[in-house]
Amino acid sequence: MTQDTQLEPLFSFDPHTGRRVYDPVAQTTSAELAATVERAALADATWAQTPRRQRASCLEAIAAALDAAAPGLVDTAMAESGLPSARLTGEVSRTTGQLRMFADVIRDGGYLGAIICPHDAARNQPDVRRVLRPIGPVGVFSASNFPFAFSVAGGDTASALAAGSAVVVKAHEGHPRTSAQVAAVVRQALHDAGAPTDILQVVYGKSAGSELVRHPAIRAVGFTGSLAGGRALFDIASGRPDPIPFFGELGSINPVVVLPSAAQLRRTELADGYAASLTLGSGQFCTNPGVIFVPDDAALLTAIADAVGATTVGPLLTERIHDGFQAAVTDEVWASLPLLASGTSDGAWSVPAQIRRASLDQFHSARDILTEERFGPAGLVVTYSDASQLLPVLTQLPGSLTASVHAEDGDAELAAPIAEALSAKVGRLIWNGWPTGVAVSWAMHHGGPWPASTAASHTSVGATAIARWLRPIAYQDWPQSLLPEELLDDNPTGVLQLRR
Questions:
Q1: What is the DSSP letter of 225?
Q2: Catalytic positions, please?
Q3: Which residue, 55, 142, 352, 494, is the most exposed by fewest CB within 10 angstroms?
């Protein structure tokens, strides 16, 4: 099945969840997948040669079309995901904002990294000029928790199209009809803008995912999802006869460290902020705070327990996620820890937020299990008596997307070494804030050491996300008439050129 297949809005009501349940979307067969990727590969050659400014205009046209279609897209996504209208409407805006940001990125041209080393006879140096070019057709895997922003037209797709690569998206099983509708809007916008529509394709089904990674025309893959699923696909990408880059965002516990002065001066604020961040999106964000280190302060622990106990969590996205969460929080080691607080739940597939408590020694001795991501509203509160004892524990944490430090002036001497220890483990350090919420900006880095991602030097959010879909090429002693325009001496497009 491809994105052009007509999808009739036939559904029934699930008596347990009250959600509309659509008839299953057909799985893409092996033959259909091969034909789909081949169409994308043919279109890729044209798209890669399309001038940057024209590609930028196409991205803006896609953004405008998605904004116009937002009400209908949101209705479908609400029915499939159970997420509220306001959340999904905001997510469409985030999606179109990403597209417009990448239009600015490619017009700017700095992402190309143009470097010119002119001929130097005295040093016997040839004329060498380096620039980044599109890597070729890429595969993108949609995420369960963001039907728009990390899906068919999400950040991976926007950055890859900006780079000049065609994209084949593997739709997530949790929102296939939303995916099909978004793809139809994007392809129509491309057609109207005079661009090849086949630069965006969508395939469906679990088997289609592994086949997509194996297809010889695919030159790189972007993935957002579980550690187990991502690792399996990473191994496929690495085990190909021609291994390809696999940019996976997998699992993250996003540690938070609360230092003593902050704990004393901002107990209520910290407790409320933690509870809100832990339960945002029913705990189904990649940046929810999985572990928080706090002083062994009875008043702070009581405030945290009260704040989490007052929360109400809505449904998880899918039955599979619900069952996985239940298994994770009944793990023998996890369940043996004291329950500090539990909130309430609302509706089928929903679970109450829960936080458990461990001493620093308990955490350190069982860190391999206690640092596994529990996708949902579960958090671990780790207490310490002396902040200096944190350093050897923090250096043993697995990689995460973020780490947060809450401190006041009285914590200055502690904050610096703690930040240094955490900086080796994460891609983003947050001061007196919470990890949920990833701004779409030029400087944002959304990645981290394993298992947060498979390539810690790359990001899936922000302007530099485009770097994943580029490869360098150097031209030695080539005539001006045959060089890419970004490497010409007169620099007609005005891109940043580094000359050495």
A1: S
A2: 249, 286
A3: 494
